[in-house]
Amino acid sequence: MIKNINVRSWVLKILENVTTIEQMEADTAKLKANACAVCAETWEDRNKNQTPHCRFGEDGICCKNCSMGPCRITPKASRGICGADAHAIAGRNYLRTIAAGTSAHSDHAREILHVLLGSSPEGNYRVRDEQKLIRLAQEWEIPTEGRDVYDIAHEVAETGLHEFGKIAGTQRFIKRAIPARQKVWHDQGIEPRAIDREIATSLHMTHMGNTADAEALVRQGLRTSLSNGWGGSMLGTEITDILFGTPTVWNTEGNLGVLEKDMVNIVVHGHDPAFSEMVVTAAEVKELVDYSRSKGSKGINVVGLCCTANEIAMRHGVRMAGNFLQQENAILTGAVEMMCVDVQCIFPSLSSLSECFHTKFVTSSPIARIPGSLYVEFKPETAFEQAKDLVRMAVDNYQKREPSRVFIPEHKQTATVGYPCEQIIKHLDGVTNSHVDEFGSYRPAIDAIKAGVLRGAVAIVGCNNPRVRPDYSHFEIMKELLKNDILIVATGCAAQVATKAGLLQKDAKYLCGAGLRRVCDLVNIPPILHMGACVDISRMMLLANGIARDWGVDTTQIPVVGCAPEWMSEKAVSIANYVVSTGLDVYLGIEPQVKGSSQMMELITQGTRKITGGGFIINKDPHELVTNIISGIEAKRTALGI
Ligand code: SF4
Ligand code: MSK
Asked: Whose CA is nearest to atom 7 of ligand 1?
């Protein structure tokens, strides 16, 4: 009884400490006033101007794949000029989306591989996780005995780069999957070949005059997505760990309150840590810190946004300013001296918005050129010098800040981040000492699931999206899952919602059911495990694979599912497809743009189940979606007889 009273008072305390969506919205509204004061527009204004959205685009039934078109499917015109019907057009558009998402993650990985190829003990980029390098080299049968670390690193990089254009064979990482999964991929003809080949094949299949069969397009989508999840993204994650260290647990903070009134604020935004790591390191150089003090500031404050925030938070504890739809808000505080971006999820509007303030907006990659930005092409050989120049420029900009325009919302929350598979294993190992081999074991977690202490796990991933109330779906779904003893692993902007709300604190266990709370206590973890950036969803695939392996069943049987309540990017469509290909169901809060084809809707929700065992469940209402998730998990449990 006394215990229950304690828990209740803790729940009240935690609920008081959680930052609510209403509070986040109030901050945004105040920042919007800052925008109005300088006549700047934001995504809210542009969203209004774009509403209502084009129905043909929404339904995926507009084709502009040749110049006889664009062709749109209407009740009067059931086929395009070439004869393609709604199913062909929606299927082709869908496959192109997957190919684009795959290219983004994979090209990011290619860049990182080139950084590893150029790494040296005296250069800007060094090997930080030798053990992981050696393990990967051994996995790829690259000799390691008696060799210099950098010789091994360069051979690993070259071997990784071959995964993009190999003439024959399939992706090396698919051998990591449990045999049952490998068999599914083989039997269904969706084993991913070279990454570039899958992308090119997808574009070729969707060229005018090629595939018009929806199922064939969906199958190629699964295959292409696998070249991402078990190819490009997995390469990106592994090589990033080798270069910058495998993430460990850090305590940090999140939300716009991490910007400092009396410091030089630099925001790093995007995805490629090769850039942000250098900026973080440069900002710690004593000479630059002293220089910032000579300009009247109290020092240099580097914070992250979007997935870059996740990358540097879990490797350095750097604080996180927020997620995707918060990128303009950061500039609207009037307190950002510089925003440095690399690739993906960057609003081109940041450049004109920065002009309304003193903010320097710096682009750094030929992949993301934005008019009006200061373009400093980042090169591995000169990266550190370039980063120092940028930091100095930001410091010089500090005195141009207009104090009357500064409004930094107070809200920020503490967060415990950095749970890649290695950390999850280490924590589980600490409880039962069940470390069975070099990859460890998930048996303690499986035992908890079998006993019903934990009902299952959900990987919550993805962006936020003005089509729904930003952050709200994430927040509602997370709270409900925790209450129902369902562990959450999170990446990307979804993880940032948890950060902003305060759900990544260990004390968030008081919002959980008794079972999950007990697990959190025993294992000493928060109930939502931060696993990294969107490229790190490959870590989640290895987690699901490891659980299935240690359980002795196929991935499609375990009570583990994916959920993207507010996704928006092409990368997200590719991700959702590789999660389904891995055998897991994916619960979506935003409809994929294929509604205009009954065949495509059937294929993505039911058809893929016959191919991989997984499929989409789509529900725009977050409360209904979470009910769907819980019933899905319970159904898997029943099928397993637990
Ligand atoms: Fe129209 Fe066919 Fe050309 Fe598409 S490929 S634009 S449906 S004619
Ligand atoms: S940054 S892809 S908005 S998660 Fe990876 Fe966030 Fe989605 Fe971009």
From this structure: 80
> How far, in Å, from the CA of 564 to the mean position of ligand 2?
11
Report which protein residue has its CA nearest ligand 2's atom 8.
Answer: 345
Q: Is the CB of 457 under 6 A from ligand 1?
A: no
Mean pLDDT of 258-269: 98
Atom number of ligand 1 nearest to Cα 70: 6
93 C-alpha vs ligand 1 centroid, how far in Å?
A: 12
Look up residue 495 and give its two tokens. Answer: 């993880």
Residue 429: pLDDT band with limits 50, 70, 90: confident
Question: Residue 485 has which token pair?
Answer: 């003893």
Nearest to 538 by CA among 276, 249, 226: 226
CATH architecture of the domain formed by 413-640: 3-Layer(aba) Sandwich (3.40)
pTM recorded for the entire structure? 0.96
**Would you tell me which CATH number, out of the four given (3.40.50.80, 3.30.2310.20, 3.40.50.2030, 3.40.50.2000), belongs to the domain 250-405?**
3.40.50.2030
Place of tokens 């991935």: 555
Asked if residue 206 has its Cβ within 6 Å of ligand 1, the reply is: no
CB 399 within 8 A of CB 296: yes
Assign 5 a pLDDT band (cuts: 50, 70, 90): low
For 204, the token pair is: 């070729």
Q: Tell me how crowded residue 208 is: count the other CB atoms within 10 A of its CB.
A: 15
Q: Would you say 314 and 280 are in contact if contact means Cβ atoms under 8 Å apart?
A: no
Residue to probe by mutation, ligand 2, list 240, 571, 590, most atoms within 8 Å of CB: 571
- Tell me, what's the pLDDT at 298? 98
| 8 Å CB contact between 140 and 161 | no
Q: Which residues make beta-bridge pairs with 267? A: 303, 339
Angle at CA 189, nearest 5°, toward 613 and 218?
A: 65
**CA of 534, closest atom in ligand 2:** 5
Q: How confident is the model at residue 2 (pLDDT cuts 50, 70, 90)?
A: very low
Using the mean position of ligand 1's atoms as its centre, give its distance from the Cα of residue 84 in Å.
7
Q: Where are the domains of the chain?
A: 250-405, 413-640
pLDDT band, residue 1 (cuts 50/70/90): very low
Q: Do domains 250-405 and 413-640 have the same CATH topology?
A: yes
Atom of ligand 1 nearest to the CA of 83: 2
Q: Calculate the CA 204 to chain-centre distance.
A: 28
Note the helical H segments in 228-371: 233-244, 273-282, 286-294, 306-316, 327-332, 349-355
- Does 85 sit in the ligand 1 pocket, CB within 6 Å? no
320 ligand 2 Cβ < 6 A? no
Whole-Å CA distances, 389 to 269, 283, 292, 392, 461? 18, 10, 13, 5, 35
DSSP code for 275 = H
For ligand 2, say whether the CB of 533 is within 6 Å of any of its atoms.
Answer: yes
CB of 149 shorter than 6 A to ligand 1? no
Of 262-271, 366-375, 420-429, where does mean pLDDT reach its minimum? 420-429
Separation CA 294–CA 453 (nearest Å): 57
Mean pLDDT of 477-504: 97
What are the backbone angles phi and psi of residue 533, rounded to the nearest 5°? -90, 180
Pocket of ligand 2 contains residue 428 by CB under 6 Å: no
Ligand nearest to the CA of 492: 2
* Span 133-180, pLDDT tens digits: 999 999 999 999 999 999 999 999 999 999 999 999 999 999 999 999
pLDDT tens for each residue of 445-469:
999 999 999 999 999 999 999 999 9
Å from CA of 581 to ligand 2 middle: 21
